[in-house]
Amino acid sequence: MSVPNDPSDSTESSGGAEKVPSRTRKRFPGISSRAYEHPADRSALVALRKLTGFDTAFKALSGLLPERSLRLLFLSDSVRVSDQQFAHLNVMLLDACYILDLEKVPSMYVTQDPQPNAMCIGMDSPIIVVTTGLVELLDEEEMRAVVGHEVGHALSGHSVYRTILLFLTNLAVRVAWIPLGNLAILAIVTALREWFRKSELSADRAGLLVGQDLQASMRGLMKIAGGNHLHEMNVDAFLKQADEYEAAGDLRDSVLKIMNVLPRTHPFTTVRAAELKKWSESRDYQRLMDGHYPRRAEDKDTSVYDTFKESANHYAENVKTSKDPLMGLIRDISTGAGDIGGKLRNKFTGPGGTQTSTQERPADETQDGPGDSPENGPRAE
């Protein structure tokens, strides 16, 4: 593998670009992708890797998938990153592979598109594609986190399932006239999208491991959300949006959140920022930075049961700590709280949203408790 200089050496350059940043960063020899994967992502990947012949079977489908076409498209109509073209991106790519100890460096292309975006696709050999909109939007450290994000996808093997998702999404459009066939494919696509949203959180963590600059990762996500106006934005205020989004409204808003996120392959940007910050403050992250992390050589011995248990515990903890109204109702039901009907009414319509007539209600009966504020009519969207 071709690797850049030691991170402590920033004097040697190629094409006028530094091979590594001037600050020293840690490297993670032999690191397993399990070290940074979101629990839901990790449990799915461990289970799939345990299926004998799974990778071989899916790679055998490469003739049916658009991978060859995509490779030819990017090769013919995009710019391949190398020492001669976008040399600074090539340096970042080599550096990211060096830090995460990814032996086979993926091909990388820059394609003309004003929309900031990046992706990692491919069955046999992952390829990374970044748009000109993204390259022009981010500074060096922000871009380093993005490149690390895509290398994390490659190390986890996400590119295989991303390619399948693209294929199935296109197939769902083509067979939309077949009701049952379309429903079956859409069910698979919906499940893949849910998994892929969690895989994006995993890759965000990989980007932080490569860049090792939380503020740069936060800035990059803010720019993706609000453009190149850093002087008009604030990280703390941006993170507060995520908190307000989680806690906002009643059950109607909870349902709308679910409906809004279902067609997406990526979590909302504020949610990604909040999740990454939370992970950066966790004990798992600190142990990883101290050199205590699972190795690739141990992947074959990983227990599927243990990873599913970790995933279940993670979701249980989310339900326990979430401020979302729907999660609050689930907590009430699971703990056997009384007056579930009343709580459900209040969650949907706000306290006092359904009133009895004056003939049916005794004159001395109070409608709501102290401090309740009725909500009049449906909430404007």
Summary of the model, kept short:
This protein has 381 residues and is mainly α. The chain has 16 helices and six strands. Helix content is 55%, strand content 5%.
Describe the secondary-structure layout.
Elements: E1 13-14, E2 17-18, H1 39-50, H2 54-59, H3 67-77, E3 79-80, H4 87-99, E4 107-111, E5 118-121, E6 127-131, H5 132-137, H6 140-156, H7 158-174, H8 179-211, H9 214-226, H10 235-247, H11 251-261, H12 269-280, H13 283-289, H14 304-321, H15 325-334, H16 340-349
Parallel strand pairs: 4-6
Antiparallel strand pairs: 1-2, 3-4, 5-6
Descriptive report:
- This protein is mainly alpha-helical.
- The chain is built from 16 helices and 6 strands.
- The strands form 2 sheets. Strands 3-4-6-5 form a 4-stranded mixed sheet, with helices on both faces.
- A hairpin with a 5-residue loop joins strand 5 (118-121) and strand 6 (127-131).
- The radius of gyration is 24 Å and the shape is globular.
- It starts with 12 loop residues before the first strand and ends in a 32-residue tail after the last helix.
